[in-house]
Each structure stands twice: as C-alpha cells, then as structure tokens.
Fold this sequence. Notes:
By secondary structure, the chain is α/β, with parallel strands linked by helices. The chain has 3 domains: 2-179, Rossmann fold; 188-427, pyruvate-formate lyase- activating enzyme; 433-488, CATH 2.40.50.140. The chain contains 13 helices and 22 strands. Strand 3, helix 1 (37-52) and strand 4 (56-57) form a beta-alpha-beta unit. The protein is globular.
Amino acid sequence: xxxxxxxxxxxxxxxxxxxxxxxxxxxxxxxxxxxxxxxxxxxxxxxxxxxxxxxxxxxxxxxxxxxxxxxxxxxxxxxxxxxxxxxxxxxxxxxxxxxxxxxxxxxxxxxxxxxxxxxxxxxxxxxxxxxxxxxxxxxxxxxxxxxxxxxxxxxxxxxxxxxxxxxxxxxxxxxxxxxxxxxxxxxxxxxxxxxxxxxxxxxxxxxxxxxxxxxxxxxxxxxxxxxxxxxxxxxxxxxxxxxxxxxxxxxxxxxxxxxxxxxxxxxxxxxxxxxxxxxxxxxxxxxxxxxxxxxxxxxxxxxxxxxxxxxxxxxxxxxxxxxxxxxxxxxxxxxxxxxxxxxxxxxxxxxxxxxxxxxxxxxxxxxxxxxxxxxxxxxxxxxxxxxxxxxxxxxxxxxxxxxxxxxxxxxxxxxxxxxxxxxxxxxxxxxxxxxxxxxxxxxxxxxxxxxxxxxxxxxxxxxxxxxxxxxxxxxxxxxxxxxxxxxxxxxxx
Length: 493
C-alpha cells in the first residue's frame, strides 16, 4: 500500500486512549477509455499500474479523486468526445485531479492543457509512467510536480526526447513517440460484472510503419513494436488459468507482429506457439491487413478448431485511384484475391472490412466503383467510416475535399449494403447448429452469445457466462439469431 501514504493521512486521538489513531485514505481512481481495442488494452494496463501503486478503483469518474482519460484522435469527433468528457467531469466532480493521456494527448497536448480542470497531460510516449507521475507528489499539494523528481530513472530501452511545458495551464509531458520502444498492455474483458467478464482482448502489437495519407495513428503511436513471444505465452496462460475460454488478439497492425525482432518472426509463429504452449480453447484474430493474410495464415486459421473462423481485413476503398491517393499498399485485385482465398478455405467464416467514404477526390463515379467492388465480394459485415480530416496528414491538404453531407450519404448507402449482406449470411444458418460462447449470465428468457463465426446469438433460457454451447438456430430477428441449446460444454481442446 506504498503509494497511499503519498496522498492523505489524518491523525486523531481516541476518547479512551492517548494512542493516536492513523486513518489512511486510499484515493480512488477511474480510467475512461475512448476508441479502439488497442486503447482499451492501454487503459487496462494503466489500471494495473495504478492498483500496483496502492490506489483503489472507483465506480465512476464522479466517485474518483483521480481520473485518467485515455483518448483517441482518429477523427475530429473523437477529439470532441474527449473534450466534452473533460468538461463534464470537471463540472460534476470539481475536486478530481484529471490526467489526459493517449493519442489525442500525444497529438495536441497544449490544446488539452488549456482546458479547465486538466491537471496533467501525458502523451503516449510517457504513458508507461502515468502511475509514477500521478503519485510523485502529495495530492494535497498545489505544487506542480517536477518531471525529474520522484520518478524512477529512464528504462534502458527508452530514449528520452521529452518536452515539458511547466508554464502551461496543466503539467504536460510529451516526447518523441518514434523514440519510444515500450509496449504497455493488459487484457481487456467483455462484460461489466467482474464475475462475468469474458473474451479478454490481449494486445500483442502497437504502432505502425505504414504511412496511409489519411491516418494520424503512426505519429501518435510510433513505430511498430511487438510483445515478446514469451510474455504473450505468459499472459495467455494466466488468462487460461483464470478460467477464460476465448482470447481476442489485437494490435494497431497485428499482422506485423514479430517483424521488429532480430531475427524476425511472423504472426503465424505466434499463433502456432499459442496453440502449442497454452490451453486456450479459442483464439480470435481482431484485424489483419490484406497483404499479411498469407497462404500459411489462411491455412492455419482454416485448419484449427481453436482459431475462430473470422477474418477482418481492412479495405478503405474499392477504387484503385482512391487507394493510390490513400497510399495503401495493395490494389483492388490484390485485395479481392485474398478475400476469395479466405472464403474458399472457410465458406462459413465471417469476413469483414473497414471502409471509408468521402476521401478527398472521391467522385460519384469513384464511389460507385468502390460500392460495386464491395457488392461483389463475400463480406458478412462492414465497419463504415466517414472521412475525417486530421491535422498534419497528407490528405488534409489534398484538393477536392468531399462535402460532409455527400460523404455521410455514401456512408448510409454502404451501411445498407452491409446490412443486406449480413442478413443473407445469417439466413444460411437457419435450422443448423453453431458453436457459441455465452457473454453474460442471461435472464429467465434468454442469454446473449457470440458464435465462432462472429454472429450474435440469443439462446432461449438462462445460461451462465463464459460457457461454450452448441445451439440450434431457429429464426432470425433484425440483429440476432434466435436459438435453443443443443448441448452444453460442447468445446474440447
């Protein structure tokens, strides 16, 4: 409980004794995450750091003495969400110390530091030191913490190029993200109730060496770096020992795992090691870029019952002209060949993609080229995004910016196409059996579950969370397949 003494210690005397009674106040913290799975994993690591320092988790930001906002900056809306949360927390819990970290903090620290209520701004470059910074001084002191006092010496593999703005409204600590070699992560769980947390998300890679013209992520997350194989095995084995049945592997550019090692390793090697050295019952791959779907990876996923039949393959656009302007490293025909190979190897697999509308220069004709390309591929779902100009990216300075209302209408068209594809995919399984994992303990009527091939299923009756079931699909509604349990505990490694 070492860090608790850095905060508040009060002393009073008992009515029946002259012996002082020490009342130790352990401050409560709350971490609020914005954005992608990688950010969620970073937030889980921050929670682990803070708990190790002796702080206690609070139920909400309104109950906490110390609030961490772990931000996203992939779109202007993400920045706006973070600013709104800062203002709301400061208004409703004015006594709380607010630390803002994450991608937005790395990109625009002074913009955040100027907001009322912000105590610290810590970039991704120093995110691994959040707990040290927060507990470096007594919380009752109004003095600004010195970034070089109370903090441990720099790790050997960290090159310090930090800039500290003590004159700013908030203490600001942001460094060169490309000098950063730390990878922080901890498992993130689905489910609100601790007893019902399922499907932990394990981030094993961070950063990106690609330079897509629309993307701010490399400049706020740095170069691609991987979690060591031994640590991945250790983290996965701990999750298995804790009773978890499915692990979701994630990263900013997951398919590049191991390429930063000497000698290089491949993502396929990581999967084989997890299958061979852990007892995890199911591995789900979150997202892999199209050209990293090698024949070996496709065969490995198709051939193992312990890997979910689910491929998420970012596309962005089906127009060759737009892909070139985006600086994407594949052509539409390369992408289509990969998708068809995946579909041929796994006809019942979920196949999804990220798609963007309204990129600069996207005319009506180029959008139709993209829509038609998508229509003719066996996608089962899409994540559709409207282009958002990010300061400092090449696309922000491109001519022919598409009006927002046009981009949003194109977004609607693709979402309707995706819904049609998803309905057709779900209908394939009416009257058939699927393997599912229960996500929460259900109520008397039904239990929510997810199939191996990424379909939402609602099972009749009450079932415990984190259980594998074989279910018989009866019918479909707008979002779910409706089923009855055919056999419990169906999965065997």
